[in-house]
Amino acid sequence: MDAELLELQRQFEAAQLAKSSVRLSERNVVELVGKLQELHFIDFDLLHTISGKEYITTEQLRSEIVAEISKSGRVSLVDLSEIVGVDLFHVERQIQHIVSNDSRLMLTNGEIISEFYWDGVAEEINEKLQECSHISLAELASQFLVSAEIIVSVLERRLGSIIKGQLEGGQLYTPAYISRITQMVRGACRGITIPTNLSTVWNSLQLLLHDDGGSNVMHIENTLIQSIFNSLVNDGEILGSLRAGVQWTPAVFSHVQKESVGAFYSQNSYIGYDALHKLAIAQPKQYLQARYPDGIALENIFVHPSIVKMLDVAIEDAIDHENWISYFPFYPNVSGQSLEGSLLYTIVILEAFAACGFAPTLVVLVASNERVDCQSLLPIYIVNQDVSKILSYCPSVERSVKSSNAVVLGESFIFSSKYIKDLSDLVEKEMNVLSFTSLGGHRPARSLADESKLESSSFEKSEIKETVDDGSSRKNVPEKGSKKKKGKHAGSAKVEHSENNSNFLENVPTKGKRNLRKSKDTSSTDAKNSSKVKDPGLNVPFDEWIAEKIMAVSSDLRELGGGDDPNTILSALSAHLRPTLQESLQKRRSIMLQENYKRRRQMLDILQKQLDEVFLDLQLYEKSLELFEDDPSTSVVLQKHLLKTLAAPIVDKLIQTLVMDNQLRNGFGAEDIDNLENEKFISGNRASLVKSLPNSLSVKAQAVVEALEGKRVETFMTALKALAEESGLMLKKLDKKIERTLLHSYRKDIMSQVSSEMDPVLLLPKIVALVYLQVFGKALQAPGRAISAAISRLKDKLPEEAFNALIDYHSSIVTLLALQSAATEDDEDCTSDRILSQKEHLDSKLPELKSLFLKTISA
Amino acid sequence: MEEWDSTTKSALTQIPLLSTRAGPRDGAAWMQRLKEEYRALIAYTSINKSNDNDWFRISAANPEGTRWTGSCWYVHNLRRYEFLLQFDIPVTYPATAPEIELPELDGKTQKMYRGGKICLTVHFKPLWAKNSPRFGIAHALCLGLAPWLAAEVPILVDSGMVKHKDDEASTAES
After folding, report:
1. Domain ranges of chain A
2. What is the ipTM of this complex?
3. Where does the E3 UFM1-protein ligase-like C-terminal domain lie (chain A) (predicted)?
4. Cα separation of A655 and A702, whole Å?
5. What confidence tens digit (pLDDT) does each residue in A191-203 have?
6. Which residue in B119, B121, B123, B133 is the catalytic one?
7. DSSP state for residue B18 in the 8-state scheme
């Protein structure tokens, strides 16, 4: 038995003998504690842990909480209640107690945070800030899991001490960074010379920052830049004004703006709003009114009262002195050529040439005979309503309008009533001329004279044209143009003078004729015009026409209208003139219509007479054709001959007359009536004339023309009858009595012809006709080719000798003609001799034959 | 070990395990084993004491430590019932568990062999066999006798088979 065993035995003994510790069950303890509380042995709050196995006093709880807080400086209540093992309710109560007692602790969002924790955080932030130069609070808040407000309140206390930086708009910045941004902002703002939206500037700045800072640089808050900017403005480091918080207008810009407006206004006494718009002044009218309270604000322009005064004086002067004043931007020295002479016109015309960018002054032109006085008055871009407005400022205008010295037309034209009157007289005269010619009345003697002077007038025209061209070229280079014009004045002074001094009325018809001619060329429009004139039955001259006339009468007005819209003034004028012109024209037109009517009647009468005559003849001859009905070839030849010789002229006449009549009825003159009579129509000509007739007539007439081309006299007769019916003409039927008288006269006629006829060739058909008349009692018109057939038909009807003589004569004529036709081809040989001998032979026979037939017939 | 209650279990796990595989006839090895038995017993006793669960007294009845005697008690209805306790270390120990005897209760309960040897639960033997040689006397007491007492004494007392000494005395007096 070793010692160790013994020792163990002893130990075991001791262990068994040791006093065992006394333990109470939990239930007992709870009961005991309850009993103690009941007996007020424990007179303080006794809490128990969540597990329910421990009692804890509030002091202990508090000390545990404090210990826990002091461990990390920041504990959430939930965590705390878990750590100390006490219900959250008690923990919260104790926490409130603790926080209220300790100013270095704060309770936010279920967390207790102590000051020293914040100190640590601040130091951490500072470190990071020095690294990145700026941090957003939102980032910090999310990093430390606290609200931004708390972090702001916490950081604000430590700014400058622990945190070396600056808090701007939710961002922390280091002073170095701030100063860098400040430099950039200052640079940018000093660099801006025009009004700029600040946000665009900030955006470009940020872009710049991004570029040098790399992609990880945060978006800088515009508020920071704004605040920097504001401080810069307040410090006077950058000059300018801020509108609506974003629109930065640098001082240098507004200075320049003001200066340039002032300079322009003081130099020109006016300034256009668009110019101000270009200078970026949004409300030019108000701006100018505020700055120059004595100025006058028009629609598009702001003028100094001196302009109005000047204008007023000019107008007054013009009206008073009966001068002719026009506002001419482009042609300062186009004088009223056609208006010169004895008349002195007073016109005040204000014109606006809004569209033209150059030649910025409107020029008042005072033109008495030679004197040209230019005065720069109104800026070019005064538009119409402004002109009328500015005119309303002129007392002289008002006065003269009241006293009916002047008429304001359109918006911007002032005409003296005298000028208007003169103008209307001129146009009326012009109109008379036109009416006469167009209605085909007798030509004014003057216009014939004009015709002869065509050359000179055309020269004049070209002259006018030249001036116009000159003017238009001057448009671009006013100075040069005027110089040129001056030279021209000097050079061609003589010509112009002679023209200008020559009867001024002479110009009128010429131009009128030109217009007329032009209008004739454009027949379609003319037709329209004429119908327009005719249809309402009013004979109203329409505005365009009047405008054209006015333009023709006074070319200066046209040039006035030059650049922009030549019709404004003209239409205004014409509208003004129209009523008086209408009246006179109406009067004139009724006279003309009467004349026309008379002429038509006359013409138709003549036609009727001629038609009757020829038609009777035709019928007469037609009868003789019956003789040849059994001989078709001869009949055809005869019919053709008849149509050609007799029918063609009458048809031509008829058609011409009808066409002319038509023209007259339509109100314009067929001036070439005389010429037409002499002309020979070819079939194409006829057809084209026929086409110009009104529709129904045209169809009939066409049928007649076609029948004329054909071979049947009968068809022609029916067609002619139809045409005559359509055109309202009468065709007399041939009756016995008329036939007899006709035949008688015809016979007499032929006999006298035969007896007087000396040409043997021509004698033959006449003799044949005479014989036919004698034998058959019918008139025959036979061409040469049909003669032989006609003669052969006479065989049984004539005495032998007469017949033989006739045949003989005929054959010798035939040989003569054959020889003659051959002789044209062959040169000098025996033929000529033979012709001569044949002729002699015939001549010798001629009296014989004559006497023979005259005898037989008279017998 | 789920069939034992929680206190038994916790106690059992706290008893140090033994390592020497030796029976009473193994001489020095048995001595070694005996020492380990003592250490385990000491630990178990101290555990019991600290838990206010002291319930037995034993000591070796011979120097070889093959026979042990002592007493054990159980508190029921605030009365302490104490019984004599004895057992021998079997020759095949530690493969065979010692048979604990409560001679006073011989013939008083069915859960007992002749001679006062307690009947252990069906679980004891397999557990012992599994843990041989790590289990020793302390384990046998903890696993075998303690649950037996807890199960049998209340029945015996209620059935009147066992009477408290005071009652016996009073009945004897009366």
Report:
1. 25-102, 134-210+218-254, 269-328+358-432, 581-734, 738-858
2. 0.81
3. 739-852
4. 10
5. 887 777 877 887 8
6. B119
7. P
What sign results for the dihedral spanned by CA atoms B135, B141, B144, B150? Answer: negative
Distance CA A668, CA A258 (A): 68
Tell me which of B87 and A712 has the higher pLDDT. Answer: B87
- Alpha helices (runs of H) in A439-453, residue ranges in sequence order: 445-452
* φ, ψ (nearest 5 deg) of residue A47: -100, 160
Longest dimension (CA), chain B: 56
One DSSP character per residue, A227-263 reads HHHHHHHHHTSS-EEEETTTEEEEHHHHHHHHHHHHH
Alpha helices in A439-522 (DSSP H): 445-452, 454-476, 478-491, 493-501, 504-521
**In chain A, which among 6-25 make CB contacts under 8 A with chain B?**
8-9, 11-13, 15-16, 18-23
Phi, psi of A249 (to 5 degrees): -110, 110
The per-residue pLDDT for range B101-116, each reduced to its tens digit, is 999 888 888 888 888 8
Q: Which domains does chain B have, with CATH numbers?
A: 8-162 (3.10.110.10)
Query: CB contact, 8 Å: A28 with chain B?
Result: no
- The answer on pLDDT for A483 being more than 60 is no
Tell me which residue in B31, B41, B51 faces A5 most closely, judged by beta carbons. Answer: B31
pLDDT confidence bin for A87, thresholds 50/70/90:
confident
3 state SS of B57: strand
Shortest Cα distance, chain B CAs vs residue A106, angstroms: 46
pLDDT at B84: 93
Q: Is B142 a catalytic residue?
A: no
Mutate one of B32, B35, B36, B38 to test the A interface: name it (highest A CB count within 10 A). Answer: B38
The pLDDT, as a whole number, for residue B44 is 92
Asked if the Cβ–Cβ distance from B52 to A1 is below 8 Å, we say: no
CA distance B154 to B165: 15
Note whether A15 contacts B38, CB cutoff 8 Å: no
Looking up tokens 């959430």, which residue turns up?
A: A76
Three-class DSSP labels, A311-345: HHHHHHHHHHCCCCEEECCCCCCCCCHHHCCCCCC
Q: Do the Cβ atoms of A20 and B42 come within 8 Å?
A: no
* Average pLDDT taken over every residue of chain A: 65
Structure tokens at B17: 């395990």
Whether residue B133 is preceded by a cis peptide bond, meaning omega within 30 degrees of 0, is: yes
Alpha helices in A39-114 (DSSP H): 58-72, 77-84, 88-101
Longest dimension (CA), chain A: 221
Q: Taking the CB of residue A161, how many other CB atoms lie within 10 A of it? A: 10
B71 min Cα distance to partner chain A (Å): 12
- What CATH number does domain A25-102 carry, 2.60.40, 1.10.10, 1.10.3860, 1.20.1740? 1.10.10
pLDDT over threshold 60, residue A467 = no
Helix ranges (DSSP H) in A643-735: 648-666, 673-678, 683-691, 695-709, 713-727
> Residue A500: is its pLDDT beyond 60?
no
DSSP-derived secondary structure letter, B3: T
Angle subtended at Cα A116 by Cα A113 and Cα A117, rounded to the nearest 5 degrees: 50
Residues of chain B contacting A16 with CB distance shorter than 8 Å: 45, 54, 57-58
